[in-house]
Amino acid sequence: MKCRGALGDFGNSIHKYIKGFQLSLQITDYIDSPIEVDRRGLTLAMAEACQKQGKYAEAIQEVTALWGNNPSDAVVCLSLCELVVTSPSASNAELEDIVQMTTPIENDDPIHSNILYLRAAAMYRMQLVDAAIKQLSLLLRKKTDRPDSLLRQIRYLRARLFEQLNQKAKAKKDYEMVYAEDPSFRDVRSRIRLLTP
Question: pTM for this structure?
Fold first, then answer.
């Protein structure tokens, strides 16, 4: 909070000595983004700190206000989606807001892929299993320049959803593809064993 009050002086001091100064901030497990020492950058950094402390409501409030001022900012959208979807206390209404706000997004780059993965995860939490599978399947069609770890997580979540629908062969196929890339990924080894007759 002290940084927010001194934001103008802090940013001016840095830019006085280093033109174009930026920091790299991990927005999700898969996406890092450059941020500047300004209100946007400080808000995103504060939100990440609040999330790590379990203060989801505070983080969501800050990033929602930031996104409201610039709804075309994909990094802010990604931060907000991740905060809501990973919040243990997110309501169905909040999850539905995420699904609604991400409807127009196309899978154009890694940031958009991560947003759409979180959209599918929101659907999963809302028990919209078929809709989530459809979203995840669309994401797996574009792999160029996408983080391998994100693609594995997308495939793993789709496998979990196939399991829920009792589509064991499809689930096992996805798990095996994840295992081939990373045998230590989550509980994929044990899930394959459970699905093997």
Answer: 0.89
